[in-house]
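Researcher: Structure prediction, please.
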Amino acid sequence: MLDAINSALDKKELPELEAGTMCYMLSKQGYLGDQAGHFHPHLMFWAERTKPKSWGAGMPGFPMIGGEEIPGRLTVFMIPVGKWSDGTPDSHDQR
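Model: Predicted structure follows.
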């Protein structure tokens, strides 16, 4: 799948990211895979390749997580929030 996405990006078959590209990940049914399982409700932001620390990701006292979404192309940032889409609190919320 990653090869197909990279090929489409190389051929300009996918649109470029617009400023402010984001996603709400607030469903209790969200599943990140067998290793991660279910995750906290969170917001996701994408940026052209950048260092996560330049946005504060991983810095002490700042709840943002950052990493490469598509290596060498896109960086993703995740900010956990306290409630699911139905308004119930995140049972894993440590705040």
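Model: Helices lie at 2-10.
Researcher: Thanks, that helps.
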